[in-house]
Amino acid sequence: MNFDLLDRYGVKMLEGLLVTGQLVSVAVILGGLLAFPIAMARLSNSRILNALSYAYVYFFRGTPLLGQLFLVYYGAGQFREALDASGMWWLFREAYYCALLTFTLNTAAYQAEILRGAILAVPSGQWEAARSMGMSSFAIYRKVVLPQAYITALRPLGNEIILMIKGSAVASIVTVFELMGTTRLAFARSFDFQVYLWAAILYLIIVESMRRIWDMLEQNITKHLRQTS
Q1: Average of per-residue pLDDT across 60-88
Q2: Could you say which of 23, 74, 87, 117 has the lowest number of CB atoms within 10 Å?
Q3: Could you tell me which of 112, 151, 147 has the C-alpha nearest to residue 130?
Q4: Least-confidence region, from 6-15, 102-111, 161-170
Q5: Rounded to whole angstroms, how far apart are CA atoms 183 and 25?
Q6: Does residue 50 contact residue 42 with C-beta atoms inside 8 Å?
Q7: Do residues 23 and 168 make contact, with C-beta atoms less than 8 angstroms apart?
């Protein structure tokens, strides 16, 4: 253990860990908000909405996250004049915001498919019973379908968050100093491979913490199901 190296770069790596947490948490929340209308469009009878949402999901699930980040970060520069004119260049000129946008769009595609599958998993009898009571489609979704669907989707959503935590390391490629970015900087200055071991341990800690938190959340939400069974 190189304590001198730890003294020099330990705080920086913890700051990078905070950036990672911030980046992932904001992306997951925004992605979750975006995932709902995409999932509804995937379930829609409209051919146009269905085709557009399918193309979106197909692209972001079928291409690597790193490639998507490069398209946003480097590709936006090709349209600088148009972005400047629209007042959007402030977003695309910053590596952090480009990474946040990419992660949001990527996780939205995965969350949309998770939610769509969970909605389809709700038994048809639930729909029929709600309709027989005279409930509107909006009320059926809000009071019957979505509460059950989100319980079904809880575990896959937790896995998606963990994948985003690990996938966030690609942000370091475009000079975002999250955990992996600060680790690469520390290695470039010290040439001590030990810093990557510390980064791996920090990733393990945050992933394991997330897993335990999600387990407690799932147990709390599904407590009534275990009692009735």
Answers
A1: 90
A2: 87
A3: 147
A4: 6-15
A5: 21
A6: yes
A7: yes
Q: 15-51 as b/e, with b when 16 or more CB fall inside 10 Å? A: ebbebbbebbeebbebbbebbeebbbbbeeeeeebee
The pLDDT, as a whole number, for residue 225 is 64
Predicted confidence (pLDDT) at residue 226 exceeds the cutoff of 80: no
pLDDT (tens digit, 9 = 90+) per residue, 198-209?
899 999 999 999
Q: How many helices (H) and strands (E) does the chain have?
A: 12, 0
- Cβ–Cβ under 8 Å, residues 16 and 181: yes
CA atoms within 13 A on the CB side of 108: 23
User: How far is the CA of 143 from the CAs of 31, 125, 146, 155, in angstroms?
Assistant: 23, 15, 7, 21
Amino acid found at 149: A
Residue 225 and residue 222: Cα distance in Å, rounded?
5
Largest CA distance in the chain: 71
Whole-angstrom Cα distance, residue 224 to residue 229? 9
Q: What gap in Å lies between CA 104 and CA 91, rounded to an integer?
A: 14
Residue 128 has pLDDT above 90, yes or no: no
16-38: pLDDT as tens digits = 999 999 999 999 999 999 999 99
